[in-house]
Design goal:
The protein has about 500 residues and is α+β, with helices and mostly antiparallel strands. Helix content is about 35%, strand content about 25%. It contains 15 helices and 25 strands. The structure holds one RNA strand of 77 nucleotides.
RNA sequence: CGGGAAGUAGCGCAGUUGGUUAGCGCACCUCGUUAGGGACGAGGAGGUCGGGCGUUCGAGUCGCCUCUUCCCGACCA
C-alpha cells in the first residue's frame, strides 16, 4: 500500500505530472506559499551547489572574477536602453514604499502612505543596467579593460505561469557582465562563454546540447546577438539551458561608458552578458530521470555511493559496520562521496527505493552472507543492474563504475536526442510530426512573418540557427522563398 | 488578463435531500514482532471544514461577497 502512494506517475502517461512529482518526492524543491516562488530543499540545493562550484571554476580559468551588485535598481535605469525596458517592463516587481505602520482600523500593518519613494525601485530581473551604471565609474582608459565580472544572485521576473525550476518568479542564477575595448574581443567572449556552458552541460551534466544563435525575435532584449544552448527533454521539447549575449555598444551608450583608446580617441565600451539559472536543474532532471526517480550524473551527485548493510543480530551489524566503514573511508580518500546508512528505523527495501528516487549513482548492499563470501552487491542507478562482486578491489571497481555511468547516461541522452532530430522541408509533414516533439532542421527564409506563422500554427519556435550544421541551400517550407538559414525548430519550455 | 476546476489533519481524498461528537488512506508518535526490494499488529496524537456576511431551531453542506491555488491559453530563461 505504501508503495503505491510513493510511486511516481509514469513518464509516458503524463510528463508534466511526472516531473512535478519527481521534484517534490525526490526532495529537491517545493512550491512556496509565496506566489510563483519556490523553496529549494537541502538536497536540491546540494546539487545546485555542485553545479555552482564547477561552473565557477570554469569561469575563473578564463579570468572571470566574482562581484556583487544591488538587488534594487532605480526605475529610470531600466528605461535607458529602449529594447531592454520593453523586454522586461511587463514582468518587474516594483518597490514603492519604505515603511509600514500599524493599522489604525484593525489588526496587522498597512503601508504607510507617507513613506512613498520619490523614485520607485525595481527588483532586478537582470542586472545589465545597474552594472553598466557602475562600470561608468570604473572605466577611463583602454587599460582598464577588459572587465570580467560575474555575480551569483537571485533575480525576480513576475511570470504569469510558473513551474518548479523551469520558470519561477524568483530564481537563482549567475550573470556575467563583461566590458571590452573592441568589438572582436566582446564577440569572442560571448562565444567563449557559450562554449563553456556547452562543455559544462555535456561533460558534467551529461546533457547534450545544440549550440547556435537566436533569431532576431528570440534575442535577449538589448542584444545584437544571442547565443544559446538548447537541450532536448525526454518528451521531445527543447529547453533553453543557457544564453550568452553580444550586446554591442548598446549599454555603453545608454550609460555613457566611454574610454580613451590607444589613439586617445573616446569610444564606447563593448559589452557581453551571459547566464545560466536553476533552470539547469530542470534540464538535469528531465534529461536522465526515469519512472523510479532521479538519475544523477556522478559528476554532480552530492552523494555518489550509498552503502546499505543487512543484518539480523547486533554482532552481525558490528562486523558489517567494521567492513563497510573501511570501504567508505577508502572511497572517501579517493575523492568519492559515500554514505553508510545503517539506520535501524528504516528497512532495507525502503532505503533501496528511497536512494533510487534520489538518484544516487551507485548502491552497495552488504549482508552477513556477503561477509562470509567476501562479496558485495553493486547496483548502478542508470540501468538498475545488480552484480555481486568481490570485496577485493571494490574501491577501484566503484570508481570505474562511476565513470562508466557518467559516460553511459550521456551516450543514452545523445542517442535519444539524435533519434528525434528530423530534417524536414515540407510544411505539412512538419506540422504533423512536430506534435510529437523533437528537433526539426528546416530551411528558413529569415523573415519574421514566417517565424510567426510557424508559431501560430504549431506552437513551435525557431530555437536557433545551429552551429556546425551544413547550411545547404533550400526553399523555405512556409513562404516558398529561398532559404537563408537552416534552423532548429521545436516546441520549447 | 480570458476560459475551466478546486479549497475539509502534514499529504491525498470522502462527507447523501442541511441533522448529534466531521471520517478514510498515507505520513507521524509509543510498544512489540521483523529486516536481501517501499514490513506487520496493537495503541495514540493531530481539524476554528480558506475568510467574511447572510438564510435557518440547526451550515462542511444553501445564498452572496472575497481570498488563494491548480489546469488550458496569451507572455517568458
Amino acid at each position: 500500500m505504501a508503495k503505491e502512494l510513493k510511486e511516481l506517475t509514469k513518464r509516458s502517461e503524463n510528463y508534466s505530472e511526472w516531473y512535478n512529482q519527481l521534484v517534490v518526492k525526490a526532495d529537491l524543491a517545493e512550491q512556496s506559499d509565496v506566489r510563483g516562488c519556490m523553496v529549494i530543499k537541502p538536497y536540491g540545493y546540494a546539487i545546485w551547489e555542485k553545479m555552482q562550484q564547477t561552473l565557477d571554476g570554469m569561469f575563473k580559468e578564463t579570468g572571470v572574477q566574482n562581484a556583487y551588485f544591488p538587488l534594487l535598481i532605480p526605475k529610470s535605469f531600466l528605461s535607458r536602453e529602449a529594447e531592454h525596458v520593453e523586454g522586461f517592463a511587463k514582468e518587474c516587481a516594483v518597490v514603492t514604499h519604505y515603511r509600514l505602520k500599524t493599522n489604525a482600523e484593525g489588526d496587522g500593518v498597512v503601508v504607510d502612505p507617507n513613506a512613498r519613494l520619490e523614485e520607485e525601485l525595481i527588483i532586478r530581473p537582470t542586472s545589465e543596467t545597474i552594472i553598466w551604471n557602475t562600470y561608468r565609474n570604473w572605466i577611463r582608459s583602454y587599460r582598464d579593460l577588459p572587465i570580467l565580472c560575474n555575480q551569483w544572485c537571485n533575480v525576480m521576473r513576475w511570470e504569469m505561469r510558473t513551474r518548479l525550476f523551469l520558470r519561477t518568479s524568483e530564481f537563482l542564477w549567475q550573470e556575467g557582465h563583461t566590458a571590452h575595448a573592441t568589438k572582436e574581443e566582446a564577440e569572442d567572449r560571448a562565444k567563449l562563454m557559450l562554449k563553456i556552458y556547452a562543455e559544462f552541460a555535456e561533460k558534467y551534466m551529461a546533457v547534450p546540447v545544440v549550440q547556435g544563435v537566436k533569431s532576431e525575435t528570440e534575442r535577449f532584449a538589448g542584444a545584437l546577438d544571442t547565443y544559446t544552448i538548447e537541450a532536448m527533454m525526454q518528451d521531445g521539447k527543447a529547453l533553453q539551458s543557457g544564453t550568452s549575449h553580444f550586446l554591442g555598444q548598446n549599454f555603453g551608450k545608454a550609460f555613457d561608458v566611454q574610454f580613451l583608446n590607444k589613439d586617445n580617441k573616446p569610444e564606447y565600451a563593448w559589452a557581453t552578458s551571459w547566464g545560466v539559472s536553476t533552470r539547469l536543474m530542470g534540464a538535469l532532471i528531465m534529461t536522465h530521470s526515469d519512472d523510479n526517480g532521479l538519475v544523477l550524473p556522478p559528476a554532480l551527485a552530492p552523494l555518489q555511493v550509498v552503502i546499505v548493510p543487512i543484518w539480523k543480530t547486533g554482532e552481525q551489524l558490528e562486523a558489517l559496520n567494521a567492513k563497510a566503514g573501511e570501504i567508505a573511508s577508502n572511497l572517501k580518500s579517493m575523492g568519492i562521496s559515500v554514505k553508510y546508512d545503517n539506520a535501524d528505523n528504516k528497512r532495507p527495501g525502503f532505503k533501496f527505493a528511497d536512494y533510487e528516487l534520489k538518484g544516487i549513482p551507485v548502491r552497495l548492499v552488504i549482508g552477513s552472507r556477503d561477509l562470509e563470501n567476501g562479496t558485495v552487491e553493486v547496483m548502478r542507478r542508470d540501468t538498475l543492474e545488480k552484480e555481486t562482486v568481490s570485496l577485493d578491489g571494490i574501491e577501484a571497481y566503484v570508481k570505474n563504475l562511476l565513470d562508466q555511468i557518467q559516460e553511459n547516461i550521456y551516450k543514452k541522452a545523445v542517442a535519444f536526442r539524435d533519434s528525434h532530430i528530423y530534417e524536414c522541408e515540407s510544411y505539412d509533414e512538419f506540422k504533423e510530426k512536430v506534435k510529437d516533439g523533437g528537433f526539426f532542421l528546416c530551411p528558413w527564409d529569415g523573415t519574421v512573418e514566417t517565424e510567426a506563422k510557424i508559431k501560430d500554427d504549431t506552437q513551435a519556435t525557431i530555437r536557433c540557427v545551429p552551429f556546425g550544421v551544413e547550411q545547404k541551400p533550400g526553399i523555405d517550407m512556409v513562404s516558398g522563398k529561398e532559404a537563408k538559414y537552416r534552423v532548429l525548430i521545436a516546441k520549447a519550455y
